[in-house]
Amino acid sequence: MKNTDKNFALSRRTLLKGLGAASLLPLVSACSTNALTSSSAGRVVVIGGGFGGATTAKYIKRFNPAIDVTLVEVNRTFHTCPFSNLVLAGERKLDAIEHNYDELKQVYGVRVIHARAEDVDPVAHTVRLSTGTSLQYDRLVLSPGIDFRWNAIEGYDEAAAELAPHAWKAGPQTALLRRQLEEMEDGGTFVMSVPDNPFRCPPGPYERASLVAHYLSKHKPKSKILILDAKDNFSKQGLFTQGWKELYGDRIEWVSLSNDGKVVRVDANKLEVETEFGNRHKASVLNVIPPQKAGFIAERAGVTNAGGWVPVKPQTFESEQAQDIYVIGDASIAAPMPKSGFSANAQGKVVAAAIVASLAGFDSVNPTWSNTCYSLVGPDYGITVADVYRVEDNALVAAPGGGVSPLDASPAFRKAEADYAHGWYEAIARDTWGTRY
Amino acid sequence: MSRLLFALLLSTPLSLLAAEPAEFAPVAELLAGSTPQTAGLKLDLPSVSEDGSAVAVGIQFEGQLEPGDRLASLHLFATENPRPELIAFRLLSDQTLPDFNTRIRLNESQQVIAVAVSEQGHSWISAKDVRVTISGCLVRDPDAEVITGMQNPRIALPRRIKAGEPVELRTLINHPMETGLRPDADGSLIPQNLVQSLQLAIDEQPALEVQFANGTAANPYVRLVVQGQGKELDFRWQDQQGEEVVEKRQLPL
């Protein structure tokens, strides 16, 4: 350690310990940020204003307000994928999952630029924006989320997504799929195509099927749901299937990979899909969740691997392939941590600490992260998987003690977990964007 | 330690630290003293797999054979599985191309080794490290239907076939592929129960034998490519009890 000031070292340790829990709780005020303030504190550019990017920008400023932080996000507001399935079910309005950047700007002094980041020069340490501006950075954080592999499923491209929505980036696509569900005739079939791992939000497709089933059972009771899956196992599978039987009888049919569930071709005009072994399925509403990869700017920065995702050093989430570039959230390879908003938020705090430490000339300390994936099988029926993660032998691993909700729990237990899900959403939205409900 | 040096150490691939793939015992036995070439055999695997129970893998021979020689077989091994054999493909005629995809089981992070052997004893090798992160999210459906025998053989032919061009075929049969190493709910081991092989004959001539093993994923899946010259395809799956499932298809040539 280069710094020998004992008080400084102590306060830094307190600070990073607080982070270690990477929880949603605000850091205790004893974690003084003043100690880290210095005159040439450094410039950080953060690309992406979702769970990962907004959290990183905010926490760098909290830890050291003297650091110059610029957040680049193309959209003026952000719609979360978490809780977007409630919007599809008509249980929540789209604007109730919308967040803005006012708190980041006004309270934390983050410079927010609404432009598209088009290129990164990792040698010159610059980012080129769609406005023509070029930003210089000392540390760059990429939290670009996912992009879709258009045409990885034959016939499924951007134009097809206007007819058969993915709704796997929330916003206009969510509204489109909701409208289609409202317009669907009673007795129709909602067909969903689910990709192989890895993809954003592992339990998300099954929560979606659940909440769409809830909507259909109330408004279009003769309708069915068909899930065509490119996997043989899925997140919280036993809990979902038990909940489906309890709440929706046989309304939801799930077809696994080895029962010919993998969709290989889409005809968006006919709302028809074809699977690997030649079965064709006709949909009334077709939801194709396509195979995915790290957001475009990660590719431009040269930090992706052959699989299209970003290998990172688990300790700091710095890219394995480029110095001074940190990549978090869905774009990074953090498995067994899932690609979730909670993970991105937790990773954002660790990266903020790592960057603040490295700009001040310190090593970073051993972090731990936590993640909980809440899923709603019905509006009053919640299930969870929770884990704590740490670094062992230079790899991210799940610590013992995590787990999932029990099978065969009482309705009161499921209702309580649904309430926790709402509490979680409000807490993380406030922590990330300062949204108050 | 300087930042750069540290970064270099961190990014050292596992394969540089591990033993030579050719020295792994089952591989050495197969090589029988020949020195394998390290270029020419393509192994396509993800660097991280979130579910070790079915990892998609591709193996493709792109090397140069000497005049008069022909490729005899392709093999896959896993260095840290309880039994290293994953699958083997025996090319029984020139109708079958050395280009396959399948799904394998990896019980932990480890190295996967691919070997190709020619009739005249030349060999090729390729290896790749895979990190397996068994997701804690996976809770199996306790009520899922359990099958014990071979069911639902599936064969997919391309929609369009151009005369004389290679034809891609996909095959799958439902089967649990019990390894003999897995305990049931009471803790006693479920006996080994595997589909042993898939044989393909084209116009009654043997063209391919796929040998499955403990390391082949449940519901054995094989994508293969044949020369579009033959017409009658005869697929035969055989399990360890000697049961056989036969499926015939015609290429619309």
TrEMBL record, chain A:
Domain Sulfide dehydrogenase [flavocytochrome c] flavoprotein chain central: 174-290
Gene Ontology terms for molecular function: flavin adenine dinucleotide binding; oxidoreductase activity
A Pfam family assignment: FCSD-flav_bind
UniProt domain FAD/NAD(P)-binding: residue ranges: 43-158
UniProt keyword annotations, A-Z: FAD, Flavoprotein
Residues of the Flavocytochrome c sulphide dehydrogenase flavin-binding domain: 366-433
InterPro entries attached to this UniProt entry: FAD/NAD-bd_sf, FAD/NAD-binding_dom, FAD/NAD-linked_Rdtase_dimer_sf, FCSD_central, FlavoCytC_S_DH_flav-bd, FlavoCytC_S_DH_flav-bd_sf, SQRD, TAT_signal
PANTHER family the record matches: FAD-DEPENDENT PYRIDINE NUCLEOTIDE-DISULPHIDE OXIDOREDUCTASE, PTHR43755
Protein name: Sulfide dehydrogenase (Flavocytochrome c) flavoprotein subunit
Organism: Thiopseudomonas denitrificans
Lineage: Bacteria, Pseudomonadati, Pseudomonadota, Gammaproteobacteria, Pseudomonadales
UniProtKB/TrEMBL annotation, chain B:
Annotated ranges, domain Sulphur oxidation protein SoxZ: 160-245
UniProt organism field: Thiopseudomonas denitrificans
Superkingdom, natural source: Bacteria
KW Signal (keyword) present: yes
Protein name: Sulfur-oxidizing protein SoxY
SUPFAM superfamilies, per the entry: E set domains
Record's keyword terms, sorted: Signal
Signal peptide: 1-18
Ig-like SoxY domain mapped to chain residues: 31-137
